[in-house]
Amino acid sequence: MVPVSYYLALSGVLFGLGMIAFVFKRNIITVFMSIELMLNAVNLAFVAFSRALGQLQGQVFVFFVIVVAAAEAAVGLGIILVIARNRQTLNVERVDSLKH
Amino acid sequence: MTLPLFLFSVLAVVAVAGAVSLILQRHPIHSALSLIVVMVALAGLYLLLGAEFIAAVQVIVYGGAIMVLFVFVIMLLNAGEEERTDFSRMARWAGLPLAAVFLVEVAYGVARAASRLPTAAQAPVSTRELAELLFRDYVFPFELTSFLILVAVLGAIVLARREDSD
Which of B55, B82, B109 is a domain's end point? Predict the structure, then answer.
């Protein structure tokens, strides 16, 4: 059997990589994808703990995280569309002031 | 090396390779495809953990709906490659190695603290048990998420609508 700590270490590594991508990438869509990567890493931790503790609440919470991530992706990509339409750029460093 | 450990290693390497590829690729479409690879690898890991329903939901909803939405938006916005502006020297020589060290340290600390948890050898979770939990104890958050999805659909339609004179 694979120890639970292996899954948690993998979850931590994926979350850290998502954080690195969130900070260092300049395309706004890639930044948004790194958020999804972080959410996936958290889901892995939830399922691993659900297995280790023998409870199902972890998987129920994963279900809710996936649903909320889907809703967030829909609205976030709508916002990205509006920003791209108004500023004609996808570079986060150019969208740094509210005034256009 | 037992079969579960071998499968875990393969899937973990694929997931980490996909995540690193997401960072290193310049075009956002390649990053999106790398993220799809990560999600499929995670679905395999959920299967290893006995969460069959969650693995199926991961592939269908995350890989089949959310990432398809991302790919559509990338295509719609005609997103090109990222501009090649270099990091500051401090970021490249100190920031990235320190980020990697931090990452390894967190993973090691989490793994060591959790090594006391038992790996419960159970049968795979049946979808019936998960459904019973979801629709009895957690029925109120479930209905709230349906309302949340409705609000998200409304928001997406309003945001993506073109400004024409009605």
Answer: B82
Domain edge (last residue) among B82, B103, B135: B82
Q: Tell me if A56 and B125 make a contact (CB, 8 A cut-off).
A: yes
Quick one: B75 and B138 in the same domain?
A: no
pTM, rounded to two decimals: 0.89
Residue-wise pLDDT for B138-161, tens only, equals 999 999 999 999 999 999 999 888
B68: closest CA of chain A, how far (Å): 11
Domain limits for position B56: 1-82
Chain B residues close to A70, C-beta within 8 Å: 61-62, 65-66, 149, 152
ipTM: 0.92
B156-162 long-range contacts, Cβ below 8 Å, gap at least 24? Answer: B156/A74, B156/A75, B156/A77, B156/A78, B158/A78, B159/A75, B159/A78, B159/A79, B159/A81, B159/A82, B160/A78, B160/A81, B160/A82
* CB A60, CB B134: distance < 8 Å: yes
CB contact under 8 A, A67 and B148: yes
Could you confirm whether domain A4-87 is CATH 1.10.287.3510? yes
